[in-house]
Design brief:
The protein is an alpha/beta fold and 253 residues long. The protein has 11 helices and 11 strands. The two termini are 26 Å apart.
Length: 253
Amino acid sequence: MDRERLAEILNRYKEGGTDLPGAMEELRDFPTSDLGFAQLDTHRSLRQGYPEVVYCAGKTPQRLEAIVADILKRGSKLLATRATAEHFEQVRKLSEALVFDAESRTIRLAGGPGPDPLSTPVAVVTAGTSDIPVAEEAAITAEVFGSRVVRIYDVGVAGIHRLLFRLPEIRKASVVIAIAGMEGALASVVGGLVDVPVIGVPTSVGYGAHFAGLAPLLAMLNSCAAGVGVVNIDNGFGAGYLASLISRGASKG
């Protein structure tokens, strides 16, 4: 349950639009919703400003359907990550507004208010095109939570002039997500060129000694550029969520 929904229930009760039993019935599953196999955190939006996000990996399509149905019933924002086509086939009957993006492996609701046009933008920057699936997970996450996103793809250090051409756009952002595999140098380079936080995302893109993302993870953790923080390997969702929080704070300021 988000702030707007809770405020609407309380105002309706205050103005006589519903009685106490009716209001209590609407709040019955607050702050958690017990589905038997899952305890949905319906209080998270009030605590943190964003609702719980559904991680689909390891969940059966049937269990995901039950979770999504409960979320839709409350009118909350919906974002499900690491979803498969099989997951989507199971839940798509719940709402025509559900959208599956195969590249980012996300399920979300279309047709909402969209990104806040007054929010300071988040720049999502990739070293190569092989990093785009992780980048799209980050970008869609940030957009679902109200951030404007500028996508700047395939500007890695192997052709650093490509990055320099796009610097004017990147420097307008309140936070930059730098996504790279191989040696992961992009985060350090961007960190030395901008005056905003940089979130490094190492990806599992690379050859053998890259160790499935460990090499760029360690490179980003050891960045000599100040202002660079790092999330886990391929964690586009974590980067997008954190970037949206930073963007929201910058907009408030």
